[in-house]
Recover the amino acids of this structure.
C-alpha cells in the first residue's frame, strides 16, 4: 500500500507560529481550586496553519470541548497562552444553537450585524452564505421548520458569517443520522476548500476525523495531553467507507483504545 | 432507481479495488469519485431535506370557529339558562337574585344614560397607565434580579413574597400615605403588578438555555448587546407570561383600590360604580358591573396578550405540538 500517511512526533508543529491561524503554547487548564481535582488539560502546544484542517480526537473526559472553549475565548487557560491572530474564532456546537426567535436568514444576519455590517449588506451576504450551504431560498424558514442537517448547515453559515480566520467545531455532526452526516462531511470539505478557512474540529469518531482532517491530533484523557499526531495525505474529498480511511482508522483506534486502557489501574 | 443503485455499487467496487493498487490508480479513482460525488451531493442533500421537512399547515377558520369559539359560547348559554331557571324557580327573592334579563336591562339603562363608556374608560385608562408604569419599573428590576447573584439573594425572596400579599391589603396604607387621590390608586396597582412582571422576567431569564448565551458570546454579543439581542428575546416566553399575569394583577388591584378609595373627586370607575350600586341595594347593577369588570379583563387578554403570546410561541414552533 502506498504510504498515504506520515507520522510525526507530537512536538512537531506546522509552519512558524507567526503566521499560524491558532497557536496554543503550553496551555493547561484546571477547574476549581488549584490541585484539588487534577488538570483537565496539561501542557498542550498546538499550531493550526492558515487554511489547515485539524481534528482533535479523544475519548470522553479528554478535555476537547474545554480546549475549544479556551480558543473561543469563552474561558481562560490556567497557564500558557493562546493566540488567534485573526481575532475572535467562530464556534459551532454539537447542538445547532440557532436562535429560535429568528428565521434562518435572520440568524445569519445577526452575526453580520454584530460584525457591524449595514442592513443592505447583511441581506446580500446572508443570501450568499445560505447559497454556500445549499439553502438558498430558506431565508424565511423558522428554525423548527428545518431538519437536523439543515439546522447544522445554517449554523455553519452563521459561523462563517463571523468571517473569522479559524472555525472551531465541537462535534457538530454527532447528533445527526449517518446518511446526513455523510452528506455534511462532503459539504464541509467543499466549503473548507472554497473558503480557505482554518478548521479545528473536535470529535470522538475516528473515521470522521480521518475522513475530514489533514492532521489528526490524539488527546489522552485525564489529564488531556497530546498523545500523538498523524498527517493524512489521502486526497479530498474522501469517502468515509474507503479503504484508505478504514486502514488508518484501525491504526488510530488502536492507539485511542490504548490511551483509554491506561485508566483501568486508576 | 435500480440503475442508480447499480452505478453507485460499481463506483464503490472500483474504489475498493484500486485501494490495493498503486498510488496513481488510487488518485485516479479518487478523482472519478470527486466528479461522481460533487454532482450527487447536492441532489442527495436536497433529497434528505425534502424527506426530513414537513410543512406546518394552518387550521382553517371554520375549524377554529368549531373548536375555539363554539365551546365557550355553549358554556355561557348553559350558565345563563341555569341562572334563568333558578330565578323562575324562585330559589331566592329577586332583589337578591335578579334574572339575567334584569341585569341586561341595567346595562342597557347605563348605556342610554351614556355613563357606561365613561365608567369603563375611567377604570381602563387607569389600568393601562398603571400597567405600563409597572412594565417600566418591573422590567429593570427583573433584569437586575436575574443577572446579579447578590441582588437576587437580597431581594429575590421579597419580590416573590410580595406576590402573595393581596393588593387590597395595601389600600389602607396607601390611603394614609396619599389620601383619597389618584396616587393611592396607582400605588396599589403598582404594588400589585410590578412584582409579577419582575418575577415573570426572572423566570423567563432562568429558563434561557446557557447554549444561547454562549453562542451569542462567540458571535460578539456581550454586555448590553448580549442583553438586547440574545437574553431578552430568549426570555420572551416567560416575560410575556409575566406581563399577562401583571395585567391581571393590575386590573384586580385597581378594582380593590377603586372599591375602597372612592371619592367624588376621583370620578366614577367600575369599582366606584360597584360600591354605589351596593349602597343603593341595586343588585342588577352590582351584577352588571361585575360582568363589565370580567368582560374588560377578558377583552384585554384576548385582544392584547393572546395574540402576542401566540406569536412568540408559534415563531419558536412551541404551539404546533399543542394542537
Amino acid at each position: 500500500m502506498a504510504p498515504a500517511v506520515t507520522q510525526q512526533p507530537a512536538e512537531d508543529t506546522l509552519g512558524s507560529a507567526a503566521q499560524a491561524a491558532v497557536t496554543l503554547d503550553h496551555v493547561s487548564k484546571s477547574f476549581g481550586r488549584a490541585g484539588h481535582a487534577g488538570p483537565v488539560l496539561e501542557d498542550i502546544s498546538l499550531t493550526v496553519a492558515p487554511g489547515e484542517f485539524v481534528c482533535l480526537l479523544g475519548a470522553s473526559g479528554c478535555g476537547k470541548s474545554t480546549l475549544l472553549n479556551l480558543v473561543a475565548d469563552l474561558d481562560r487557560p490556567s497557564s500558557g497562552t493562546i493566540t488567534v491572530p485573526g481575532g475572535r474564532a467562530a464556534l459551532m456546537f454539537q447542538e445547532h444553537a440557532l436562535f429560535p426567535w429568528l428565521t434562518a436568514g435572520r440568524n445569519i444576519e445577526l452575526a453580520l450585524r454584530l460584525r457591524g455590517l449595514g442592513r443592505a449588506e447583511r441581506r446580500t451576504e446572508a443570501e450568499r452564505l445560505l447559497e454556500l450551504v445549499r439553502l438558498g431560498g430558506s431565508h424565511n424558514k423558522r428554525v423548527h421548520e428545518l431538519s437536523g442537517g439543515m439546522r447544522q448547515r445554517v449554523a455553519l453559515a452563521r459561523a462563517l458569517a463571523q468571517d473569522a480566520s479559524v472555525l472551531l467545531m465541537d462535534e457538530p455532526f454527532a447528533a445527526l443520522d449517518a446518511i446526513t452526516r455523510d452528506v455534511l462531511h462532503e459539504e464541509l470539505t467543499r466549503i473548507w476548500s472554497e473558503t480557505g478557512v482554518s478548521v479545528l474540529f473536535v470529535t470522538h469518531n475516528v473515521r470522521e476525523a480521518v475522513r475530514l482532517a489533514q492532521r489528526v491530533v490524539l488527546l489522552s484523557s485525564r489529564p488531556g495531553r497530546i498523545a500523538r499526531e498523524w498527517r493524512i495525505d489521502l486526497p479530498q474529498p474522501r469517502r468515509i467507507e474507503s479503504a484508505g480511511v478504514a486502514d488508518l482508522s484501525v491504526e488510530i483506534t488502536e492507539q485511542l483504545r490504548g490511551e483509554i486502557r491506561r485508566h483501568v489501574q486508576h | 432507481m435500480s440503475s442508480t443503485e447499480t452505478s453507485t455499487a460499481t463506483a464503490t467496487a472500483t474504489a475498493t479495488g484500486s485501494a490495493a493498487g498503486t498510488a496513481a490508480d488510487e488518485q485516479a479513482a479518487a478523482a472519478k469519485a470527486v466528479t461522481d460525488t460533487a454532482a450527487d451531493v447536492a441532489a442527495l442533500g436536497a433529497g434528505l431535506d425534502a424527506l426530513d421537512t414537513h410543512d406546518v399547515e394552518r387550521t382553517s377558520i371554520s375549524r377554529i370557529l368549531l373548536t375555539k369559539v363554539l365551546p365557550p359560547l355553549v358554556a355561557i348559554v348553559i350558565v345563563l339558562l341555569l341562572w334563568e331557571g333558578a330565578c323562575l324557580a324562585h330559589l331566592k327573592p329577586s332583589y337578591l337574585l335578579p334574572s339575567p334579563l334584569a341585569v341586561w336591562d341595567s346595562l342597557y339603562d347605563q348605556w342610554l344614560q351614556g355613563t357606561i363608556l365613561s365608567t369603563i374608560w375611567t377604570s381602563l385608562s387607569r389600568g393601562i397607565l398603571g400597567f405600563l408604569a409597572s412594565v417600566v419599573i418591573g422590567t429593570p428590576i427583573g433584569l437586575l434580579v436575574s443577572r446579579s447573584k447578590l441582588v437576587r439573594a437580597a431581594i429575590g425572596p421579597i419580590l416573590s413574597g410580595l406576590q402573595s400579599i393581596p393588593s387590597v391589603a395595601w389600600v389602607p396604607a396607601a390611603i394614609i400615605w396619599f389620601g383619597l387621590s389618584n396616587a393611592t390608586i396607582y400605588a396599589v396597582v403598582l404594588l400589585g403588578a410590578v412584582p409579577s412582571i419582575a418575577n415573570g422576567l426572572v423566570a423567563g431569564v432562568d429558563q434561557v438555555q446557557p447554549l444561547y448565551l454562549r453562542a451569542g458570546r462567540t458571535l460578539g454579543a456581550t454586555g448590553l448587546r448580549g442583553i438586547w439581542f440574545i437574553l431578552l428575546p430568549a426570555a420572551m416566553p416567560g416575560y410575556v407570561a409575566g406581563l399577562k399575569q401583571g395585567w391581571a394583577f393590575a386590573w384586580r388591584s385597581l378594582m380593590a383600590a377603586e372599591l375602597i378609595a372612592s371619592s367624588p373627586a376621583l370620578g366614577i370607575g367600575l369599582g366606584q360604580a360597584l360600591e354605589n350600586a351596593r349602597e343603593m341595594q341595586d343588585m342588577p347593577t352590582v351584577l352588571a358591573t361585575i360582568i363589565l369588570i370580567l368582560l374588560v379583563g377578558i377583552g384585554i387578554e384576548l385582544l392584547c396578550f393572546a395574540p402576542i403570546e401566540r406569536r412568540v410561541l408559534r415563531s419558536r414552533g412551541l404551539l404546533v405540538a399543542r394542537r
User: Anything to note?
Assistant: The two ends of chain B are 38 Å apart (CA to CA). The first helix of chain B runs from residue 2 to 19. Chain B has a mean pLDDT of 82.
